[in-house]
Each structure stands twice: as C-alpha cells, then as structure tokens.
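Predict structure. Chain length: 203.
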Amino acid sequence: MMPAARESLLDAAFAALARRPWSAVRMVDVAATAGVSRQTLYNEFGSKEGLARALVRREADGYLAGAERALAAPGDVRERLTATARWTVCAARDNALVRAVLTGCWSERLPSPTLSAVPSSSAVPAQRRADGPLPSPGDVMAAVRDRAVAALGGPGAARADMAELARSCELAVRLALSCVAAPPPGEDDGVAELVRSALQRQG
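Prediction complete.
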C-alpha cells in the first residue's frame, strides 16, 4: 500500500476517535472513510490493535517532530526551550493521544495498547515499527532532552556545558508536563513564564 493510503487510514481512525470512544470505532467505518476495502485495512495493520499501535506511534512521532521544530526556532537557548515547553502544552491540549503518551494516563475513550513490543508478522515496515515498543512518558521526555542537547549544544561544547544543557532541557520538559497535568492560569503564557523564570534561576 502507498504511504499516502496508510496516512488516510490513520487520519480516518483519528477522526473517528474524536467522535466516539475507541471501543466503538469500527474497522469497516475507518476503511469506508479512507475509501479502501476492509481487507486492505487489515492487510496494512493486521488488527484493530495494530491500527491503535500505529495511531499512537504516529501521534508520538508528530509530537517529537514539533518539538524539533521548536528547538530549531531562532533565539537563545532559553527562548528555544520555552518554545518547546509551549509546544508540549499546546500539543497535549489539542490531541488526547499526545496527552496520554506524555502523561501515561489513558482514558477509557482512548485505545490503550501495551507499551512493550508485540509479535509482528507484518510485511509493512511502518507496521513492524508500530508493533515494536511504544514510547512511555519517560522515553518521550528522554527523546526531547536528547534532541534538545543535539540542537542547542555546539559541536565544541565542553562536557560540563552539555550536562548543564541536558539539565535545563529536562527541567523545561518536566515543567511543561506538570502544566499538561495541571494547566496554570493563562494556558500557554503560563507555561512560558514558568519555564523562563525556572531557567533564569537555574542559570
């Protein structure tokens, strides 16, 4: 199947999930919305659980891609970490699956695939990846921290500077996650102010 068709199926599943609990989402409806046969859907994802795993993997990847864009924005380290924290809060607010991936709190409305790898006989490389381990909140935080260190640390930076940068990145992400769990007044501006002042105290 073409990657575009796989994306269409994932888009259809995501749209269905916005309207009803995952337990009520039917594979036949997802296939019909994407304009393919139900057999094509099963060929691509294997099962409803396989579709859920692929959907969670895609949303987690989308969140990490957004974090990388925030880290690549113009500005100094503090501004870019603040932008990353703001993106984290916005992404979690706007996407229930991202919120669940970041917090580990899966509501009854959502699919709740096991985070460990599952046996995969899929011939589809993207599905084999989705059938591998799904990221825990700790995995996602570590991935953002590592991307931040790579994006913000200069090639000749000293080890102590890199360790300090890693601490700042982790602080920014932890503060953002605390704002996801308990949003401060002012939403996005609240997290930006919180991260800025914390990084200022740290630096």
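Summary: The CA atoms of residues 71 and 151 lie 7 Å apart.
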